[in-house]
Amino acid sequence: MPQLSMRDAINQALHQEMARDPRVIVLGEDVSGGAGGTSGEREAAGGIFGVTKGLLPKYGEQRVIDTPISESAIIGAAGGAALAGLRPVAEIMFADFVGVCLDQIYNQIAKFRYMFGGRTTCPVVIRTAMGAGMNMGAQHSQTMYPLLTAVPGLKIVIPSNAYDAKGLMLQAIRDDDPVVFFEHKALYPRKGEVPEGMYTIPFGEANLVREGEHATVVAIGRMVPFAEKALDALAKDGITCDLIDPRTTSPLDSDTIIESVEGTGRLIVIDESPPRCSVAADIVAIVTQAAFRSMKAAPRMVTAPHAPIPFAPALERAYVPGPQKIEAAIRAAVRE
Amino acid sequence: MTFTAEQLERAYRQMKTIREFEERLHVEIATGEIPGFTHLYSGQEAVAVGVCETLTDADYIASTHRGHGHCIAKGCDVLGMMKEIYGRADGLCKGKGGSMHIADFSRGMLGANAIVGGGPPLAVGAAIACRNAGNKAVSVAFGGDGSCNQGTVFEAMNLAVVLKVPAIFVFENNGYSEHTGADYSVGSKDIAGRSRGFGMPAEDVDGADFFAVYEAMQRAVAHAKAGKGPYTIVPLITRYFGHFEGDPQNYRAKDEVAQLRQTMDCLKRFRARVEADRSLPLSRLDAIDTEVLELIDRCVKEAKASPPPAESELTSDVYINY
Q1: Mutation site, A64, A111, A113, A119, interface B, largest B CB count within 10 A
Q2: A207-335 architecture in CATH?
């Protein structure tokens, strides 16, 4: 099976779905790039991370739309185009910029179906790059998904590997509800086996990455490969865990997590976001209410601190929950 | 330009329906039977109707918090609207939207919008769809002297120019952004000038004159459908009621509204015009007046008799599937 990076897997999904469905358009800042520049290179970028590369030459300027730096207009236009029958994939270059266009996301597209009594759908996909680890500082490194997971009407997707990213992206574009698709920047170059053909991964179905006995570890996005590293180390001491990747935080496959905790009796949630009102806190609350009597130890969260993301590499390394922190937390939980 | 008798009757009926819908709501809201927060459109009817009479169901509009007039003008079912405003199960949006969230997608009505400046980016998106389908339809963003100060609107105007899409921005300058005068809040005092600054043609128009609005819109639609990009119309108009029902309007001179009801009434102006050029006997308009009053009366009676939504509706329609 071909090995693709997560970047190329998402790119392949966009290419395949644009070829299949003429209603799909892509819009955002520099999604092709080069418009109005002096080099004559019309596709100068293909997205700053290269995720939208090759779309413009194939599908043309009507369907691959470079926009001004106007996040509210990008998301609003995507919403309006969706109401008018298109299937827009809008890019917000960095998830942090969601703050600029929050109204269009949570007051507009998220609420249309409900406010208008089920008379419409708003099939928008918002793609956005998130996450720390590249020294981009406090305004280009946040996860932002806790904020949007809390909004009824949105579906929130966070792939942790290339295979899932392709299947989830195809599902996202075909889904009739608005979807926000968070792509961790540090995962873009990570390769995995990705079939050439089209396939979808349903939302709300967690991936049981590993099976084990002593604890249930839930990890999101980049925390999944970090948790795998931690579990490799723990295996040497005979500690094994269920590792669950929810893949979508809304809908959340809480059944799979609860069932696992009923077996292992311990829950550790790994989340790159700050702890308060986070997806980690949410999962702990949901699972504890459902499986309290099965639990042998208090649930634990391994998260970033309640602080903005620092620039200095040494500080940023300390900010992100790494494999060692995860390993220590699991060890402590299992000992309890 | 000449209008057929049928066109004239239709335009008058639409304006009169909006007027009576709103005047009746003003009375009914005072009884306490209508829940929530309502913003009435009385006084501005010639704008909604002048704009929408140039459109078909294939064209889109994105409306505002003061949206009843736009809804009626674009063809939304008046009874369904009344039921929606009363919060009834068989309202246009099942009672889940209310006055500020009425939409009818079969009519190209993309929704009233309770966020000032929320609609124009959406209208530009629908205009992208229109452009990609060959500029056979247009997309209208309604706004006012309030929304013209929102950054989202600036973004939408620029994007529309950059992408050359058939979007038409209609800024109804009714003199007040909520409770603050437009002569204070619009720094340049020239809304049309701003649109020109973004690179599109723009014209001021007498918002109480149906014919003037209609003709300006025809120029806008022709421009947009020719693939020349967006256009702006700024109707100068007034509202007869407060920002919302219950607004004591202490910011307006005591006799301002009473005077404007005499001097700035699109229905009176319409009647005077058709009387002067003998294009329609006034008896026809009188007959329409009676029919409209009967319609609104029936709407209120039926809305009051309609059931509230069942509690099971609380969590339906959040998603298609979840």
Answers
A1: A119
A2: 3-Layer(aba) Sandwich (3.40)
